[in-house]
Amino acid sequence: MDEEGKALKDVSVTINGTAAGTKTNDEGRFTLHSNASQGSITFSYVGYKTEVRTFSGNAQINLVLTADKKALDEVVVVGYGTQRKANLTGAVEQITDEALKNRPLTNLSQGLQGLIPNLNLTPPDGRPSTSATFNVRGVTSIGQGGEALVLIDGVEGNPALINPQDIASITVLKDAASSAIYGARGAFGVILITTKNPQNEKLQINYTSNYSIKKPTYIPEFVTDGYTWASMFNEAFASWNNYASYPQNVNKTLPFSQEYLQELKRRSEDPSLPRVEVDPVTGQYVYYDSHNWFKDLYKSNTQSIDQGITVSGKSNRTSYLLSGHYFNQPGLFRYNSDDYKMYNVRSKGSLDVFPWLTVSNNTDFSKVIYHIPMNVGETGGIWRNIVAEGHPMVPLYNPDGTLTYSAAYTVGDYAYGKNGMDYDKNIFRNTASFNARFFNNALNIKGDFTYQITNNDETRRRVPVPYSRIPGVIEYLGNAYNDMRVIKRSTEYIASNLYGEFEKKFKRHYLKTLLGYNYELSTYKRVGTERNGLIYADAEDLNLALGESMTITGGYEQWNIMGGFFRVNYSYDDRYLLEINGRYDGSSKFPAHERFAFFPSISAGWRLTKEPYWNISRDLISDLKLRASYGSLGNGNISSYVFQEQLSLSKMTRIIEGVQNPSTSAPAVLPAGLTWETATTANFGLDLGLFNNKLLINADYYQRKTINMFTTGPELPAVFGAASPRGNYADLMTKGFELSVSYRDRFLLAEKPFNYNIRAILSDNKSTILKYNNSRKLLSDYYEGQTLGEIWGYVTDGFFVSEEQIRTSANQSLFLSTAAGVWRVGDIKFKDLNNDGVIDYGDNTVNNPGDKVIIGNSSPRYRFGLNLSADWNRLFFSAFIQGVGKRDWYPSRGANTFWGQYNAPYGHPPVSQIGNIWSEDNPNAYFPRYTAYLAWTAGGVLREVQTRYLQNAAYVRLKNIQLGYNLPDQWLRKAGIKGASVYVSGENLYTYSPMFKYTKNNIDPENVSESDQLLGDGNQGDGFNYPMLKSVSFGLSITF
Amino acid sequence: MKNIITIIGATTLLFASCNKLDQIPKSTVSKEAVFNSEAGLKLYTNSFYTLLPTSNDILKGDNMGDFVARKDVPDFFRAGAFGPAQSTGWTWTSLRNINYFLENNNSSSVSEAVRNNYNGIARLFRALFYFEKVKRFGDVPWINRTLSTNDELLYSGRDPRALVMDSVLNDLNYAIENISAASEATRTRITRTVAQALKSRICLFEGTYRKYHTELNLQSTANRWLQEAADAAQAVINSNLYSLANITDIENGYRNLFISTSVNSETLLCIAYSQELGVFHDANWYYTSATAGDRLSFTRKFINTYLRSDGTPFTDLPDYKTQTFMSETKNRDKRLNQTIRTQGYTRINGTQTVNVPPQFSQTYTGYQPAKWVNPDMGLDGGSRNASNIPIIRYAEVLLNYAEAKAELGTLTDEDWANTIGQLRKRGGITGGLSTKPTQADNYIRQNYFPNISDPVILEVRRERGIELALEGFRFYDIIRWKRGELFTDTWNGMYVPALNTMMDLNEDGVNDVYFYTERPSNMQSGVIYINVAPEVNGQPNNMILSETNKGEIQWMNTIPRVWNDRMYLYPIPLNDLTLNPNLKQNPNW
């Protein structure tokens, strides 16, 4: 029966260790027959706590099952404390370590993607060192910007470097009410990461190990046959040049001629001919290869190893936890491999000095080492460089083992193996804290002090790369570089909190108050040194750089903040819930008179199911709560010193009197006033539990208005001579929702309980500019009324079908389809939307955009996740699907993976384009007449954003799937093992995106972002970045 | 009393807590730290040097000259492609930087002479700044202080050219009076002599502009500016600090001025580059890449202006129009063979010295520039050149002097011998060096300057074109001489005597190029095949021959270039005009 004395039907009753089992009947009774004279019986029922009773003989067992309110009684970590989930009034979501279990994660942000609605993580690429920005609920500010505040055990920390296995729970505070207690840094949400604490009295040792095999989700498939490639190159080049001239070179490294093309053809028909020869006239190598440079670039796969151990225990007055973690992922690159390693050590301990006083300490050390190979022939990522110079006709090595010229620009530099950057980042942190309890625990005083030092060091070496064009003659690429750069950055950070909490319940009234003080100080220092003239190519220390070009730079930034905060929780009968938060915040980043500000918020909840008149069966609606909150928070995320007139120093490029002198110049014009950006959030939420809380629904709708954003001033005439001073000028509105639905139940399968759990989440947000200094509404900037992410472009009206049509159509001379301005049949035709006979962009303003219209939006919308998990008879299974419902992508200039040779003629044509290129025989192809530079050169007709090539980059991805087995206890007991499990887990194994229709498997929908940002400026072409990885891993977890 | 103490105490506490949040930047400096010492003044004035021309302004600066063909037609000359919406150049940040300096350079910790020296440098840069603005836009607002966001000057109209240029002259004169150094060894600092040379350049521009642009109604003031130009050039000459370099090396002396990593006696001011410091420019890439760059080539019309080595005009030869590349490039002013690729031009490939012909993958006319190109082919791909780029050469000062005097009508035979005569002598020319010409050259007159009858002016202009070719002067020389129509000339190239014939342009025994209208079936390695049929696939061809089967190459007739007298001034960019309608647009834009 249940707590109210009602009989429970269908309770599953099994005798442990046997197959015997039954269910209770309508009256809640059961009878079990067994040969065993004694043993234990397990009673389990969904929504109730499972009970185990021993029996001996034919005894009657009476049992009251208590409702498992886990879902509601669950304690949620909130700012400076915890809260029962049932009593939450703000928009707060928490997940536990379950969600990260058994996944081979290089860092936390990869694991959290898609788990929490509106915790938006968009990794720019798949580098192991890449950590997505933690964004909560969409665009924050177009002024100072801002991301969510991430706190680890209550103190700001770096989520990229935490040991994923240390994590007990992750809470996201989404609305102003729940994050107000963090004041100026919590304006755009707060993420609270809590690490594990000792659970058991006894010493417990947990060891986990995971071995993964990883490879890119997609490697672009390019034409690698030398002759096919070369004839496409020849065609694209000639077409651009109006068929009047033919290429003499393939970009910089390979001479080209029509005769060479004919020779390539001959050799492709007769593969027995050699692939490298020496031209008797010039003495240079001539290549006839069909080389796949990506095979040189990547290993067929790489493996990562993850090892972790946690030792914990408790005694009367002490508790301790030690954990160590090692993660090693050798690079994906075949040469000069980009090895990644992470080490973590944590030590936590606490001591009850007196019954009323506990002191604890939490020490954490993390270190990440990452090597990035680089090219000296050209800056930027290897992907762009392969497209520029990695021509398929040329192999990596010449017959004598020297690098080819093409190789020196590309993978050959990696094979040479000297050029690269080494990142070494480590964080040491210690938090000492106390907790004093008075008046029968009604009053808690807590305090903590944290010291953290982050070192972020970078070493770069660049030396020229030897190559050979003529047998026996070695030349060097990258003569300009022969240098070493070392940058040391350190950030010292101290934080202290002192706060008291008073909790009192009398009759139906419940009151909890919190009052506290917070102070933080951060000091950043940097030293950068660079010197050329390495005495040999393997030099690893600055002492071996002896050149004339020396640069030494410094850097310093210090800020501090202090704040007083409070929170009052009041509830009546657990039915009416009220919470008031506030923080009085001060920051050194603002001028004295604007330094302090007060940020209040309020939230309330109403649990309808607690009302006496609520008479809908709990079996149907078990719990229903309405929530609302409102509050405003300042955004203190502004760079230090902006209100002070300062002249900065820099080293000149120009040489004067033999050296590159420092120089300084007029300071930026100071803003007339500078105050806080303010984000005001209104949130409405609903928590609904149905069918005895088997089905749980949480929904939130919010509006966040960010006002006084620190943006560009009113446009001033250029004679002002400086950028219009920025000020608090712009407003932004973001609206969105979150929805999460979960269902859990069980049934008997082969007389054993089969538990399953389904959780689906969906979230969205959309931002609109309410105010901005762009009175003419130029499209080149933000403007009032703009939906962020919108894409303006032309409407494609197919291809020209006849000369007649070209003559009679609107004038497209603003664009180019050949260098000579000539248009031909098969070229792109734009729609003359304003019927003025000319295709143009008018004034490039909203009111006169010429023939441009909004054709899409690049913001990811409708992010979703779906979690399925089940366990049965020691087997456990889970699958996690994640995706984005809507997102448009227009492949940028340089995005070779999409454009191929429509970009630059020497680019690599994707195999997916073959058969889909316009010709007289194929007039309905997707791509126009085969012509180079259309997506590259200014005015090129494909570089102009247009409807036909706008891609739907929405996707759905099987993020993780795993199957595991808990080893039977009896096997383990002898070895003194408490529990052990083995599993196999797959990450990113399957992806679908509508854009695959045209891109096939050339590009991962998450790689369509800008080019590599560690090595370039991000503008070299979408998709030229480190691939996303998929993996299969095998793991084991043992607890002693 | 107690309350008062409490209030004072509380206030003190509040202040103490406020002060705790005061943070002072340490990696930047305050205004006082800069202006209180000479080192600080020097530090600040270094920032002005970014106003000096860049390598692009000089070695690519003639990409809009009338004498070069290029891979595409500049938008400026393309019908309908250029207007106020596309116009640029109305930026004023550098001026604010200079004015901020002049306003704040008043610390008593620095002696007046030192302050004035740096003020002189600042004002020289302000003159340069305004010179560029006036060249481009004509009337511009004269602003000599930093403006605040509500300054009335922000929305006022433009000041007349005469006022602005008088202020420029004031700045120049102030600079010449106050800059202490007369010369500096590395030729990278502004000195008094550099200021004088720049003054000659600016005054010559203004003098000739006023003389020929009669629409300004400033002709009467032209001579004053020409005299200032002549005097300033004279001052540089009289300083005896500089002289023409490499005068005895007729074969390579001229070319070496542009590929040398060391400074010579001719350089007044240069942009320095350095292998050691890793600072490079990309001349080789620009002039030899088949894909990057503008692929500049001289037109035949201009190549014709190079004299024969005896000092007589090449165009006096009766058959000059039909001479092949091979014959026309011989026995000429040696500067021709050092400006473009001709017979005997060699480069270094790895360790080998190789003959290099004009390559039709890089040139459209056959007259491929060699002037800035380092022979080492290893420097071709990317920014790798470390040679100095002269900003002001003594040769220019001589030309400024000669032109100002010629325009004034006061050029003597002695002046001629000391200026043009010297330059021609270095080019290996033997005749006409000591006396000024007395007969107007028909070719120059008919083809370039029909309104000029003065033989000296015509010859000075010929000389300036040749000596300073590809140094970034040409566009504004044409503008100030008011000969914009020249920009619409056909881009013509070398004479092709017959189709379907192998040509060995540098006569090294290796065929270089082959012109056809029907593609031959067998193609020879190393030869560039060029289709000059009038139409290709039914569309007009970019490269044709003037007489279809033979004749001069004509490039890019498919895109007509237009000239309109409004183009002597650039339009005020649309955006700036919208922001301040009082600026008023330049005429007819």
From TrEMBL, chain B:
Residues 292-589 form the RagB/SusD domain. The keyword Ribonucleoprotein does not apply. Transmembrane segments: none annotated. This is SusD-like protein P2. The keyword Signal applies. PROSITE patterns: PROKAR_LIPOPROTEIN. Belongs to the SusD family. It comes from Mycovorax composti.
